[in-house]
Each structure stands twice: as structure tokens, then as C-alpha cells.
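assembly run, all chains below
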Amino acid sequence: MRRAASSEWLIDALALRVSASGDMTLVYQLYSTLRTWIQHGELEAGVPLPSSRHLSQALSISRNTVLAAMDRLQAEGLIVSRRGAGLYVAKLPTMPLPVDPPATALVEYSARGQALLDRCATLSQHYHAFAPGIPGLDLFPHAQWQRLLRRHFHQADTAWFSYQSLGGLPALKDALCDYLTLSRAVRCRPEQIVITQGAQQAFELIVQLLTDSGESVWMEEPGYGGAQTAFQAAGLTVTPVPVDEEGMNPALCPAPTSSPRLIYVTPSHQYPCGVTMPVPRRLALLECAARHGAWIIEDDYDSEFRYDTPPVPSLQGLAGQAAVIYVGTFSKVLYPGLRLGYLVLPDPLADAFRLAHARLHREGNYPVQSALAEFIAKGLFSRHIARMRASYRQRQACLRNALSPAIEKGLTLSSGHAGMHLLAELDNQTQEQRLIELAHQAGITLSPLSRYYLGQPQRAGLVLGYAGAPEDELHRAGRWLSQAWLSLHEGRKPHAKLVYCP
Amino acid sequence: MRRAASSEWLIDALALRVSASGDMTLVYQLYSTLRTWIQHGELEAGVPLPSSRHLSQALSISRNTVLAAMDRLQAEGLIVSRRGAGLYVAKLPTMPLPVDPPATALVEYSARGQALLDRCATLSQHYHAFAPGIPGLDLFPHAQWQRLLRRHFHQADTAWFSYQSLGGLPALKDALCDYLTLSRAVRCRPEQIVITQGAQQAFELIVQLLTDSGESVWMEEPGYGGAQTAFQAAGLTVTPVPVDEEGMNPALCPAPTSSPRLIYVTPSHQYPCGVTMPVPRRLALLECAARHGAWIIEDDYDSEFRYDTPPVPSLQGLAGQAAVIYVGTFSKVLYPGLRLGYLVLPDPLADAFRLAHARLHREGNYPVQSALAEFIAKGLFSRHIARMRASYRQRQACLRNALSPAIEKGLTLSSGHAGMHLLAELDNQTQEQRLIELAHQAGITLSPLSRYYLGQPQRAGLVLGYAGAPEDELHRAGRWLSQAWLSLHEGRKPHAKLVYCP
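ok done. output:
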């Protein structure tokens, strides 16, 4: 066809492709067939097309159909008309089409892209027993929440479906402000709050507005991978600062180092070690931040779940809000898929963050925010937290009980005063690695403490989430782990019956 | 109190604060009162506290209440016990508390933060006539959509509420793939799709994985502010490439310049000029990208709304998917507050993007994605688009009609073959600036074309959105604009009756 595109040949070929019984309109069939042939070089530049009258008669379709298809081809530059001489195939730049996609090995990611991808190896799709940070979705009041969603979607203001730059629905900011003031001793007014699509977006905003690429952030070591990722993605130099039994210890910061722009801490319940930062250390940290001119990020991710005392007051409340940016999330107290988090900002930062969020990320989901505002304002949120606190306490007890044979022989667990996971200390990296492998063979995903280190791990252990799994599963998984640990501890070969069926 | 903290004085002061009729528990009242006094230095380090027996009798509360409050103060490091001598106020690092928040003028944003904030000046909360990019929310099938949401929330798999790393709900990717293949001539399989929380997140992922700070991106000039912001936020050097009547023209790129890593285009309907890139220019662009080893970002934001012909096939489909990343959004075809967008990736990139998205942004909103999957698969989506297309065509006609007095005197509008806005060309920047001011006085927000330029604006004009406003409002606003333009055009002083009441 390429060389000898006589009119008759072309019409015969078209008759095979264009049919009134097809799914597509006749115009589209005619247009797309010619388009493909022209693009693939089967109809060469300069080839004349039959007249619309000729084509319509030969193909038994209306002349308007032919004209519409030709108009479109002409509009797209695939055919051209020569005055008084009809239509011709246009001259297109030569290019082999379609291009074969390059093989995976040939894709060159950027340096920051590759660093990000290197951290993705640890992503798991398994959220069974021991998965850290997963709330008890089986205990969530789904029906109640759905009723609220339904009503708030129904009552929604049309403007809520459009773009917004309010920093979140005002009703949610009001309700959240009351809650944070009362329950977390955060000092704030609703204007200081910006609602985000999760804590990750909150971290992104902070690094975007307050740091430049190459500047330094101090980060708890071991610490939270999500924050590490956000800082590294923004080109920051992350300086790991060791955590001791009182949380991040600035005195242990490897000197000399440039002044940090940010200091990231989880003072209420250090992630993943579980310690609470006492007030003297908090004051020392505030003083240290002031000296460096750094902002503190207080990530208060799960401190609602405190089992021994009421939740520890926030660092932000202690600091008189001056230098502390408080970050919270609903992923742990409600559910991760909700994608709602928030920032409580020092007054002078609030407007800038609100505008930058609207510009960089866009706002949305106002009906969901409205339902959540009612959930909080009506006390359903506090009641849900109280119920979860009781359940998680039971789940933790169940896990401890299942691990008791190992505990009796020396396995050390963190205090478990708070949160959704326990830290089991191990003797060394070899033992950690061996347990991970055994668990993998048994179908259990364990989170090694080494994964939470940016530098060389100084301790070995396992981060054991217990909030997301029902007691029977926790019991079975806990028994398995207890036996596996005992085998290694006593230098025995692990027994065949360790195979675990969830 | 500071110096003379005798036991009796302290007990009298506590009696004023601790009351069984208060909102808080007695433990909390006692704890928080002492905590505040210690932190503020009103109880100095070394001051002994009355015994728990003494306090409980003097305040008429149970001894267990006193012990619980003291336990907590001790746990937080605010009081210490001396063997056999009772409890004392601990020594805290000295620090003036609370610190006054710094004045706004003192906040030092980062260079990238300040650049982002400089772009926020243009954010508007007014989404009346002429706001570009706003769909007709008054025409959205809210009731139908709510029914779907309700059902899909009800039927939701519990796992949907947890973290995910599937790149979006598979059912949505399937439905979207069918739609894109048929309607947009995109060549893809569902595995190539990653669902994001809007197009901004899609841009963020692209720059994160494929570029490093300081590298170059070619951007249409004038072009889309959201993409400009995402590129600049990631530290890219944005090279503006002029748009002519066939879209971005690589031949007009200011040489010499380093090879771009990315080339951003809106080939179906250039934003904001409204031109469609013909096939020869598309092929030239693909060839140019291949020469530079650059990835093309095809932003196909509103091409569903084509009024003269069926939607123009995508550049991605033409390219054999090799070097083109296709970005779409549901903000224009459904509504912005939905926060759903997507990427169609070349095969070798798909897995990396899926994992990086889960790691960097987290996934969520699966019940909403499930409702949307049904909305698309059942043809409701196509029907909605067809209805909107008819309505937007009418709204455009209404705006043209309202502007007809000015058009007769030479005001030039873009073709309006597609999309949700028209471009009105103006003589010069002075006229543009004058109209913006007049409109502002009349309560109308106009979008000047100059705002879409990164460099010196080469043309003057107004970007007139018409999709989001009902016809009566468009008519009144259009008439106002027509008269205002005529006044300036004819050198008359604008008439007082130009005041516009929406």
C-alpha cells in the first residue's frame, strides 16, 4: 500500500475497516483508520485522497460522514488541501513509531529518586499481627461513621466541592482545637491549625517553607521512617541524634555539625523505642533549639493511647508555642485510609502555611472533614479513643501473655505504658536477622529495629505492633515468636512445628 | 509564693484550684496545677511538698488521688523523692516560659519557601463567573454520587481503611484504563496506572523520581501555574518555551540551554491559550524529547470537553508510550474537592512510581475510589461528561453573546473548540491592568494572562472561565466586561453603572 496507493486500493482497504455494525461511529472509524495509516507511514506524504463524493458512494456512507472525518484529519494536520486539487496526505516529521519502551534496566532515576526507591524495599502489604502503626480496624464504629458521612455529604455546601484555601473546614478546626487544648494541653486557636491529607503532607509543607536543600535536620535515631523519607526527599541532610531512656539526647549529637533548621521528636512516646521525654529533657531541648534558631517538629502520632496515666501534655504547650510545630494524624486514632492530618503552627507561620498548602497540595474532602468535626464535637471521638485504649490494653496483655515463656527466660519488652506496639530487645543483629528469616518462612512479617536506623544500628530488637490484630491471632503469633526466640536463645535448632497459619 | 513556699501556703493555694465540682478529675486538677507552678518557677527547685496524708486531709480528697497526681509529676521529672524525706520540686533547666512568639516580620522562610509564598498572592476564594478551571458544581449529580458513596462505604473491605501500596484500587484502575483507551486513545494496561490525590501529587512524584534539584524542565509559556509551582518547589530550573498557534514550539526555546529532564505540555488544549497541537508538531516534540533524553509530561486536564470534534487523541497514544507520562485529574470532570488524579506511566516506571507513592504520600480513600470505579464502569461518567459538554457549550455561547458588543468592535476571543475557558486578547499590559482594577472595584475577579507567564509577558489578555457559573451570572458579568472593554477601547471614562452585583 505504501508505494501504490491508488484510489481503488485505498477504498477496498477502507471498506474492510468501516462498518455500520461496529461499536464506533462511522466518522470515528473512517478517521481513526486513516489516522493510523498516515502515522505509520502506510499512506505516504503527498498521496492524494479520493474525493468525498467518491468515497461516500464507494463505502455506502453519507457524504457528511466523510466530510466530518476529513475535517478532523485536516484539523490535526494529517492531511492538507491543495487549492482546487482535493486532499493529500501531509508530510510528517520522520520518526519510527511506535517506539519500543526501554527495558527497566535502562531507566535512570534521579539521585533523590533512587534514594527514595531504596527505602521502598521495606513496604509491606501484610497487616497481620505485629504490623506496627495499624489501628484496630475491626473495632472501628463503621456504621456510625457511615451515617455521619452520609448526612454531611447530603448537607454539603456546593462550595465545599470546589478549590479551597481556608486551611481546612473551620468547623473541624474549631472542634480539633477544643480537643487538643483539653486532651493534649496544646495551646492554640483554630486559626493556627492547617488540615492536611495526612502527616506526610504536613512534613512536606514544613520542609518546603522552612528549609532549603542541603540544610540539616536532627532526627531521633532510631526514628520514624515516614519522617526520614520526607526529609530526605526534600534534599535535607538528616543528622541522626541517639535516643536514650529519656528520648532524643542532644548532648549525644555527633559534633561538629552545622546548626539544624529543624529538630524532629516524638516526645510523648518515642517511635519506636516507646520512652517518654521528661520535662527537664524537654526544657533542655527547647533551649537547644532556641540556641540553634531551629524549629522543633513535635510528632504526636499515638499519644492518645496511654495506659498508666492520662496522656502526657504536649511539648508545644510547654514551649509557649514559640518554636514548636505540632503535627498530628487521624491515621492512628481513626484509620489510615482517611488521609487526614494536621499542623498546629506558631501564630506567625499560620497564614503562610495555609496559603502554601492550598497552592502546593490543594485542599479537599470537606464533607468528610465536616463529618469528623461532628464526630469530635459530639464526644464520639473521645469515646472511641477510650474504647480503643481499653481494647489495646487487652491486646497488649494478650501479646505479653503469649510471650511469657520467653520473658521468663530473659526476653526484655519495653514498658508498654503507651501506644500501639512493644519493643522486644534482642542480643544482637545476628539474632534479629535470624528471627526475621524464621518468621518469613512461617508466614509472619516482623519489623526489625535495625530498619528504624539511618546509621549503624546500636541496638537489636523487634517492633511488635499489637493494636491491629484480634487477640486469637496475637496469641498464636506471640506463642510462635516466644518459641522461636527460646530456640535461638538456648542454641537449639528451631522446631518444625513453628509453622504458623494465620 | 516563689520564695516562701510553706506547706500551709501551698495547701491554701491548692484548695482554691482543686474542686470536686470541676470538669476535670481531681487527679488532673491537682497534677496540672502543681505542674504549671513548677514550670513557671512559682514553686522553686528544692521546695519540699506536703506529705500525701497531709494533703489529702487538708484538701478533703482521697489519698489515692494525691498519690496518683504525685506519681505522674514524678514520672514526668517535675518532682523527685529523697529517700525517707518525701517529695521535692525537681531542678529544671532555666528558661523563660512561656516564650513570646516572634513577630511575623522575624520569621525567616527558606529560599524555596519564599518563592512558593510569592506565588500564593494570586490565590482567590472567589469562584464566581470567570474563575478558570472550576466545573459546573451546580450541575453535578450529587444525589446519584452520594448513593454510590454510601453503598461503597457500606460494602468496603476492612483492609481498604488501612495503608495500601497497590497504586490505587484495582477496580478503579481497570475502569479508568478502559475509559482512557476508548476515549482518549491512551495505550495502557491497568498496571501502568497510579491513582494519586490530585494532579499536584502526580507532578510531585515525577519530579521526585526523575529529576534532581537544579536540573531543567521545559514548560509552556504561558502555562499552568500548578505545574510551575510543583517544579519550582522541587528546585528545578524552569525554562519557559513559547507557545504559538500550534502549542509549545521547541524551535523557539531560548538557546543555549542545558538538556531538559522533563518537558511539560498540554497538547490537547493548551492552558491557557486553548490551541491544539497538530500531529506534525507532536512528532517534532517527541523527536526533540528523544534527542534530549527527556520525559514528556502530558497534562490532559480538560480535553473531555471538546465541542467541534470528538476529543483529540492523546500524545501518549501517538508516542507508543515510550517517553510520555500521562497525567489526568478528576478535578475538572467531577469536582476539585474529590482530590483524585492519576498517572499513566511507561511500563518500566510503573512499579517504582507505585512504591514511591505509597512511601512518600500514602494511599487512601479506597471506598471513594470504589464508588468512582462503578461510576465509570456503568457509563455514568461518560454520560456526565456528555451532559457537561452540552451545558458548557451553552455557557460559552452565553458568554460570547454577552460579549458581542465588544466582539463587534474588535475584541478577539480564542476559538473555544474545547475546554472550560476562553482567552480574550487585549492590546497591551496597560489595558489588562486597567480592566483588572475596574473589575476589582465592581466585585469581579478577572484572571490576567500575564499571571500565566514565568518571564516577561509577550501577550496581554484575560482568561475567562465559563464552566462554573450559571448563565444569568455569566450574562451579567459578560455584559459588564463588554462595556468596560468598550470604554477603554474607545478612550471613554468607564461609566458609573458598570458596578456589578453578582
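Residues 167-303+312-378 of chain B form a domain with the Aspartate Aminotransferase; domain 2 fold (CATH 3.40.640.10).

Residues 1-5, 95-105 of chain B have pLDDT under 50 and may be disordered.

not gonna interpret more than that til we talk
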